[in-house]
Amino acid sequence: MSTGAWAGTAPLTIAFPTDVPSWDPLVRVAPNPISIYRSVFDTAIDIDEKGVLRPGVVTAWRWKDTEGKVLELDLRDDVLFHNGDKLTSDDFKFTYFDRLHADKSLQVGGIWWALDSIETPSPTRVVMHFKAPMVTAPAFLGYLGGYLMPRKYFERVGAAGFIAKPVGSGPYKLVDYQRDSRITLTAFDKHWRGASKFRDVVFQVVKDPTSRVSAVQAGQADVSGMLPLRETVRLGQVGTLGSKVTPTIDSYLIHMVNSGPTTDKNVRLAMHHAIDKQALVRAFFNNVPAVMSTAAAPGTPAFDPAFQFAHDPALAQKLLAASGYSKDKPVRVKFLATNGVYPSDFDMARAITQMWKNVGIEAELTPIETAQFFSQAVAGTLPGPTLWLWQNGSGDPELSAGSYLNPKGGFSVWRSPDVSPHLDPLLVQLDETKRIEGYKGFHRWAVNEGYSLPLMQGIATAAYKKTVGYTPFLSGWMLPDYWTA
Predict the structure, then answer these.
(1) Which residues of the chain have pLDDT under 50?
(2) Which of 82, 178, 226, 458 could form a disulfide with 248 if both were Cys (CB 3.0 to 4.6 A apart)?
(3) For 350-381, what is each residue's pLDDT tens digit?
(4) 12, 221 contact by CB (below 8 A)
């Protein structure tokens, strides 16, 4: 395909592992389809390829108090929705307050529990008032806190009408949608950043990683993402293809559940000590991502290289023995993992089950769909520990362990009351140095309790035609409006 083809004769096709759960982006807080959502909808604050918050629709933000309860933001005055309506502070208020109060079923509402009111003193000025300090509000506004919605259009067509024909202010407009198959987009010429280089883009939903490899190799896709690492490297050696392997600021971990055998601290810690993380990194990722002992990945503020959790099978067996288990009398657990959603996810889970078996843990491995994980995690019904890639495009620790371990939040997996005394003070700490140091301590405590098992930093893989100027993001996002033709 020549560069000129992207002038309009053929779409740029991306083989992508997941679909959107809904075209109402406030329904579910889902990191997997972020690349699709961010193509159609703007978030208030932008996050660049290095994971740094930067001006977007919001040009500047500042705290107006010393408690983290009053946040003032300035908006651009040249942002248009796809239907031509101008984006103003009223749309901001509708997105982050009015709509969430009108429909308590929206998952994004769980993020803004502390929001008391929003003032709109002018079309380009917003003041957010919080009931309690929310020092990470800017990070949530840039990541999963909500995609900006058009009040007038939504109120005219209703929720069902919006889902049928969504309107955002992002760099692309939705042209056609076939669930679990194709998402066809066209560039929004009046986007505030300017028109994208690729006028027409198709996200082809291809859940099987082998099929994504075949698609780009056969020329059926111009870009394929979330591929097995070895296949990514091999494809990059094909004359017409390039490839990228990017260690990300996300993290592979095992979510623990406080039900069944993992209510026993000895079992949780034994599961952790039994895992040879370096062997996993070597076997599946060619030693590219770094092994992690706490929740913060390298490149994020709370990364803590001084803390190391040992691979120690002998200690794992000793802990199990203290609870009455052994190789002859193993503890039995259900173990869940995604299959093909992230690079080598299910294969890595198989290797972990073998490591556990070697010390006296029999794990029944079962695949889980991303939609199943989110619904069961929210309901507290996950049947066992789950291998997961926790995505956090902002890099802020509150949006990782501060969320999945917070028993008061809507995104917690492990839930026990002893977490809150350790975590709650950090949620209101405005001094950034103290906050980050506090999170390092919280991470160490949580790992020593066995409440989550961090494994390694995430990895994003992509193969693409060399005529595509592909830009990798440390968040792992695939955003065609940042690429060059």
Answers:
(1) 1-5, 7-8
(2) 458
(3) 999 999 999 999 999 999 998 899 889 888 99
(4) no
Q: Is residue 41 within a helix (H) or strand (E), and if so which, with residue range?
A: none
Instruction: Please say whether the beta carbons of 304 and 295 come within 8 A.
Output: no
CA–CA distance, 177 with 199 (Å, rounded to integer)? 17
* Cβ-based neighbour number of residue 209 at 10 Å: 26
* Buried b / exposed e along 83-98 (16+ C-beta atoms within 10 A): eebebbbbbbbbbbbb
pLDDT tens, residue by residue, 279-307? 999 999 999 999 999 999 998 999 999 99
With contact defined as beta carbons under 8 Å apart, do 166 and 154 qualify? no
Report strand pairing: 12-16 vs 70-75. unpaired
Domains and CATH numbers, the chain: 42-152 (3.90.76.10), 248-459 (3.10.105.10)
* CB burial of residue 283 (10 Å; 0-12, 13-18, 19+): middle
Give SS3 for 415. coil
Using DSSP bridges, classify how beta strands 331-337 and 70-75 pair: parallel, antiparallel or unpaired. unpaired
Q: Which residues of 392-420 are buried (b: 16+ CB within 10 A; e: fewer)?
A: bbbbbbbbbbbbbbbeebebbbbbeeebe
**Amino acid present at 379:** A
CB 323 within 8 A of CB 269: no
Give the list of residues 6+ apart from residue 64 with CB closer than 8 angstroms, or none. 70, 71, 72, 127
CB 228 within 8 A of CB 243: no
Report d(CA 13, CA 107) in Å as an integer: 30
CA-only gyration radius of the chain, Å: 23
